[in-house]
Design brief:
The protein is an alpha+beta fold. It has two domains: 59 residues, Alpha-Beta Plaits (2-Layer Sandwich); 170 residues, NADH Oxidase, CATH 3.40.109.10. The protein is built from nine helices and eight strands. The strands form three sheets. The chain has a four-stranded antiparallel sheet, with helices on both faces. Helix 4 packs antiparallel against helix 7. The longest helix has 18 residues.
Length: 263
């Protein structure tokens, strides 16, 4: 996968030292690549002369670092983490496509096991009304299927069904969000990391996200919902709601002390 421009390469060995699998070596005073590459791109990122590339991927998307190390101040990042909230009230305002694309880029660039980059992202915005109708149509069947294996959740879903039947305008699952997002991955850890980065990016865009364990469970139990989304081959790991928050939080929320074992 890796290509070395021997005219640009100065043989410094930075890429050789940083290669996890030992795929790179010096040959005649220049870097050379073998066949054990997982495409992590560290060699591209570390080369001081820009001599390394992975032609099969989008090299035009590679950016130069403009500062040493992480470009966000530690205190600013910690403040952002503390300030994030799970949003359950959204404005009737569409999320711009360019913001969604940047949020998905944050998911795309998240590290994955063995650099498989195997997360699949599902975005429902234009057809959200149809999707919500189908979810509510499927929910009674999902509720019945969960009565033996997860009775507490089934009871909760039964409450949602009853409330929706009494008042179809009651939005107990979607809260007026403009976008439904889902992530599928063979490694659920990969999907969780991607979702976290996407949430942070959403917050940076002035948006809010709610991780919905309810919707993840509902979709996972309904073949019709999975078929509508196009879920196949990879298990659905995470469902989220996205939109402009209709509530303003004025301070961070308290948390119990961290459970840490120092050695």
């Amino acid at each position: 996968m890796v290509t070395i421009d021997r005219e640009l390469c100065v043989g410094c060995g930075a890429c050789v030292r940083d290669c996890l699998l030992g795929n790179l070596h010096l040959e005649g005073g220049k870097a050379a690549a073998g066949e054990r590459c997982i495409g992590c791109g560290h060699c591209v990122a570390v080369c001081p002369k820009g001599a390394v590339s992975i032609p099969a991927w989008d090299m035009a998307d590679v950016e130069e670092y403009e500062a040493e190390g992480f470009s966000v101040k530690p205190e600013d990042y910690l403040h952002a983490v503390k300030f994030r909230r799970s949003i359950r009230s959204y404005e009737e305002r569409p999320v711009e496509r360019e913001k969604l694309e940047r949020i998905l880029q944050a998911g795309r660039y998240t590290p994955t096991a063995a650099n498989r980059q195997a997360c699949r992202f599902y975005v429902v915005q234009k057809e959200l009304f149809r999707w919500k109708e189908l979810v509510w149509r499927e929910l009674p069947g999902v509720t019945a299927a969960l009565r033996e294996t997860a009775p507490a959740m089934a009871a909760r879903f039964a409450e949602f069904v009853k409330a929706h039947q009494e008042d179809p305008g009651k939005d107990s699952l979607f809260f007026g969000a403009d976008v439904f997002l889902a992530v599928a991955a063979d490694e659920t850890f990969d999907a969780g990391l991607a979702a976290c980065n996407m949430e942070n990016m959403a917050a940076a865009e002035g948006l809010g996200i709610l991780y919905s364990g309810y919707l993840t469970r509902i979709v996972g139990k309904s073949p019709a919902l999975k078929e509508w989304l196009g879920v196949s081959g990879k298990p659905l790991a995470c469902c989220m709601l996205l939109g402009y928050p209709a509530v303003r939080y004025r301070r961070t929320a308290p948390r119990k002390p961290a459970d840490i074992l120092w050695r």
